[in-house]
């Protein structure tokens, strides 16, 4: 059985047996929190448990490295929507130790792109269209610096209400221990002075 068939078969019994009922909640986050974190598989269950979150407590946005790379990209749009339409009142950017984006070089990905059959003409077309593939695919050298940069991008966004605290944390995917990088409450207090 192929993966999609397995997923659909499981879903059919999930719905028929009403296994969804324990997960019912509203679209509004109970803890009024929006989290940007990494898509790393080790965090799927670890992160909510480490933060004492249950289904419905927070909006969780995931991408490679918990990186906010553009102030008007889809991650920032999701944060703005979570605040204005879904009543979130705090933001957490949570990176993690041992992230695959740490030290990632674009050349490694581009070699794999070529090995998978994407021809050089396509890559050149992207380049001539103004896409800087090497910057777009480049990782970061320090997870703490990356988290701080993302916090700053959110905090300085022109549509972010000034009173919204934006926190930065790093989680250990082996133990769940959180390290504080930026305390959003303190950041708000300092900017109010």
Task: List the defining traits of the structure above.
single chain; 193 residues; alpha/beta; Beta-carbonic Anhydrase, Chain A; 5-stranded mixed sheet; Carbonic_anhydrase; Carbonic_anhydrase_sf
- Helix proportion: 40-55%
Number of domains: 2
Strand order of the largest sheet: 2-1-3-4-5
Unreliable stretches covering 5 or more consecutive residues: none
Give the overall form. globular
Structural class: alpha/beta
Proportion of strand residues = 15-25%
Number of discrete helical segments: 8
Overall strand count: 5
Protein name: carbonic anhydrase
Family: Belongs to the beta-class carbonic anhydrase family.
Binding site for Zn(2+): 38, 40, 96, 99
Catalytic activity: hydrogencarbonate + H(+) = CO2 + H2O
Q: Could you explain the architecture of this structure?
A:
The chain has 193 residues and is an alpha/beta fold. It has two domains: 139 residues, Carbonic anhydrase (Beta-carbonic Anhydrase, Chain A, 3-Layer(aba) Sandwich); 34 residues, no CATH class. 41% of the residues lie in helices and 16% in strands. The chain is built from eight helices and five strands. The chain has a five-stranded mixed β-sheet, sandwiched between helices. α2 links the parallel β1 and β2. The mean pLDDT is 95. InterPro entries: Carbonic_anhydrase (IPR001765), Carbonic_anhydrase_sf (IPR036874). GO terms for molecular function: carbonate dehydratase activity; zinc ion binding. It holds the Pfam family Pro_CA. Belongs to the beta-class carbonic anhydrase family. Its EC number is 4.2.1.1.
